[in-house]
Amino acid sequence: MKKREYFISCDWGTSNFRLRVVENSSLKILAEHKTDQGIKSLYEKYLTQTVKDQTTYFAEYLASEISNLPKIHRKHIVVAAGMASANIGLYEMDYADFPLNGNGDNLKWKHLKLPNNLELLLISGAKTNSEMMRGEEIQAVGLNDQLTPYQKGVLILPGTHSKHLTYRNSQYLDLKNFMTGELFEVLSQKSILSNSILKENTIINENVFIEGVKLGLKGLLSERLFSVRARHILDHKPKEDNYYFLSGLLIGDEIKYLANTVDTIFLVAPDPVFSLYKIALEQIIIKEKLILLDGHYLEKALLIGQQKILKNYDQ
């Protein structure tokens, strides 16, 4: 088995791009470089030209950004997860099928030799019969060691599109997607409710948030959405309160199916969403069944997941 001292972690999402030089033995980050050139914006730029094919265009961008890393670390293998393997990314790959093994050995990966002697290990997304994800599968693989002692449960990864993964004995068996984050953005910024919502206070208004959660848990999302505006116009509630009321309503709706579960729930997220989901889940999940892992664990999970895939490739 090939032993590598270092690798370059590439986290290439829809909106952002990040490179990190990682010491393989300790996962210590030795250097980091970020841009706002996510897959979506770079693909739009690619479409404005006709000289280069898609893979070449993206590969050249990747190589140019690697040149911002320390010179002694520019030749390591790049391990890329996220939207880089999407149809608008560097190289389209098919999704791996669920169930997903906790060590990642049944994910799909592709080794590419790119211009400038760039060596890239590209990782696929994962799918069930009706759901799919790209990027979170690597986090799930990286989190497996945290979940193993509990044997079974549901892993919740909040985000623009929240992921709920059913976990049993070091396997992820099923996936649910919830568009909670995107719905909040659309409703709070682009709907008639936008004039009744304002975020200025970073301190969570817990009482108002829980009020929204409880309505969401009852399945009243659609029925009570317009009440966000009514609270402002008729009841003269502050717009800042409505920010948390709407958040609670949407998150409560997302987690309502877990109200009677006996499974352990694993929440893994950075703040501020970590705190919001924690409060919401505490309304229905007893303390002993709620395992809380903050943003530090999520950051580490990506590196652990990429390390596992690299190890599988090198064997």
Automatic annotation (TrEMBL):
InterPro entries: DGOK, DGOK_C, DGOK_N
Entry's Gene Ontology BP terms: D-galactonate catabolic process
GO MF annotation, one: 2-dehydro-3-deoxygalactonokinase activity
One Pfam family per UniProt: DGOK
Lineage of the species this protein comes from: Bacteria, Pseudomonadati, Bacteroidota, Flavobacteriia, Flavobacteriales
Name the record gives this protein: 2-keto-3-deoxy-galactonokinase
Source species: Cellulophaga algicola (strain DSM 14237 / IC166 / ACAM 630)
Coiled-coil residue windows: none
N-terminal signal peptide: none
